[in-house]
Amino acid sequence: TMAAPTQASEAAAQVAPEEDLATGPLPLAKLQEREPSITRKDLELLAQAGFHTVDSLAFSATKRLHSLAAAGDLPKWSDEKLKKIKTAAAQCVDMGFQFGPMACSPPGFLLVLQGARR
């Protein structure tokens, strides 16, 4: 009876951290893995400006980042730096469109729809 809990705990320990994060919002620290030029200070400034996840950054308009920089909430990064940040965020997040049933379905769930009949 002792072997079953051990096997279950070993299986749980083998789950990669990325798999856990893939089901929810990604922390900003993931940007540094994608783009080494993004510093810890950059991430702190983004968090102070209200961006606490990669998802929030990826789906925000570049114009909003420019307006936050103009207001003093973010540093006046170059267009190249902003492009690197936005590109890294977009690479971490699925930016594709999903309609309601697909967005709410569990991973690996296949939704089969029939066409309308006349």
Structure commentary:
The structure is a single chain. With 118 residues, the chain is mainly α. Helices cover 54% and strands 0% of the residues. It is built from 8 helices and no strands. The protein has helices spanning 3-13, 17-21, 30-34, 40-48, 54-58, 62-71, 79-92, 100-104. The longest helix has 14 residues, at 79-92. The model is unreliable at 1-21 (pLDDT under 50).
Please describe the topology of this protein.
Elements: H1 3-13, H2 17-21, H3 30-34, H4 40-48, H5 54-58, H6 62-71, H7 79-92, H8 100-104
For the secondary structure, the number of strands is 0
Would you tell me the structural class of the helices and strands?
mainly alpha
Average pLDDT reading: 74
Q: How big a fraction of the residues is strand? A: under 5%
